[in-house]
Each structure stands twice: as C-alpha cells, then as structure tokens.
Amino acid sequence: MRIVVVSAGMSVPSSTRILADQLAGAAVGALHGPVEVDVVELRPLAHALADHLLTGFPSGELAEAVELVRHADAMIAVTPVFSASYSGLFKTFFDVLEPDLLSGMPVLIGATAGTARHSLVLEHALRPLFTYLHATVVPTGVFAASEDFGEPGLEARVGRAAGELATLLMGAPRRRARSVEDGFDDPTPFEDLLRGA
C-alpha cells in the first residue's frame, strides 16, 4: 500500500507540513499493515513547475514527484489558504498532472490558515478540484487554523478523516499505476475515423 502526501507549505517548518504529517501518521495507524508513505513538498518544485508550464514536460524532481503520484494507491493533499482558496503552487502541481491520473484515487484533503474564517475552503475549492480530477474525496476534510494545533478537536478530525481514507483503501481494489501510454493501447485506425466523418 502506497500513500503519497502532497504538501504546499511555503515556510520551513510549515503548519501545512505539520498537518500533512499528522494525517499521514493517522492513516498509517488506521491501516494496520505495511504502508509506504512518500512526501512531495511543492516549495522546492516551484521553478520546475513553471518550466513545465512552458515546455509541457516535467524534469528532474518534478518528474519523480509525478511518478510517486502515478504509483500511489491514495493521496493526502494539504495546502495553505491564500486569498480564500488553495495556493497557486498547489493548483499548478495538479494542473500539470496528466488527465485521469487521479481517477478513482482516494484523496484526503486538508488546509491550514491563520484563522478559522477560511475553513470553508475545503468545500468550495479543494473538494470541487479533486472531484473534477475524478478522485474519490473522503467525506471528512481537515482544516486547521493556527489555534487548532495541539487541541483535541483537531486530533479527532484527523483521526476520523484518516479512518475514512483507510476504509476506502481497504475496500477498494489496488490501483494499477497509470502510464502515459495507457491512452494509446488500442487506437482507432485513421481510416475508421475518416469513415465516421
């Protein structure tokens, strides 16, 4: 079982990464079995993401991060809140993934901000993004304002969300890693396409 954790924290250390680590730890505990966790920190990938937008090809560490997503059975995705939504860096990472790469993948969403006023970001920004990408988003998203860290309420939400992710993982067949070539396995002959025109 492989879980990829995507963290878009902008500082070191960041509350976003702290929440991501808490969610990953709780998910591993809820799964009661061998679990491999890979962490993708987006901050060091900012230049590679910009290059990808210009060239259309991932390189270096970004290509490795995409492969981690490709081979994962589930994802934990956590972003800081900027201007009442996910960060641009977070969105750019998901913009450069191949279409349908997240199709059917269980995803646990999380967000951090300085105040609880931003808590609806999970429902008006993150959940629609991952639904559009055809992922299976767990019912409980986890938002953490600065004052939430160390509070039992956050620990309870983390535990509930991780349990839901584990339930999805244990009840679903293992995902087959998608390859770039999957869309070309059985192409329609060109003459058939012309006949249909």
Main β-sheet description: 7 strands, mixed
- Sequence stretches where pLDDT stays below 50 over 5 or more residues: none
Q: Percent range for helical residues?
A: 40-55%
End-to-end separation in angstroms reads 45 Å
Series of H and E elements? EHEHHEEHEHEEHH
If you had to describe this structure to a student in words, what would you say it looks like?
This protein has about 200 residues and is an alpha/beta fold. It has a single domain, classed as Rossmann fold (3-Layer(aba) Sandwich), CATH 3.40.50.360. Helix content is about 45%, strand content about 20%. The protein has helices at about 15-30, 45-55, 60-70, 90-95, 120-130, 150-170, 190-195; strands at about 1-5, 35-40, 75-80, 85, 105-115, 135, 140-145. Strands 1, 2, 3, 4, 5, 6 and 7 form a seven-stranded mixed beta sheet that branches. Strand 3 and strand 4 form a beta hairpin. Helix 1 (about 15-30) packs across helix 6 and helix 2 packs across helix 4. The longest helix is centred in the last third of the chain and has 20 residues, at about 150-170. It is globular. It starts with a strand and ends with a helix.
Output the keywords:
single chain, 197 residues, seven-stranded mixed beta sheet, 7 helices, 19% strand
Summarize the structure.
By secondary structure, this protein is an alpha/beta fold.
How are the SSEs placed, and which strands pair?
Elements: E1 2-7, H1 15-31, E2 36-41, H2 46-55, H3 60-70, E3 74-82, E4 85-86, H4 88-96, E5 106-113, H5 121-132, E6 136-137, E7 142-145, H6 152-171, H7 190-196
Parallel strand pairs: 1-2, 1-3, 3-5, 5-6, 5-7
Antiparallel strand pairs: 3-4
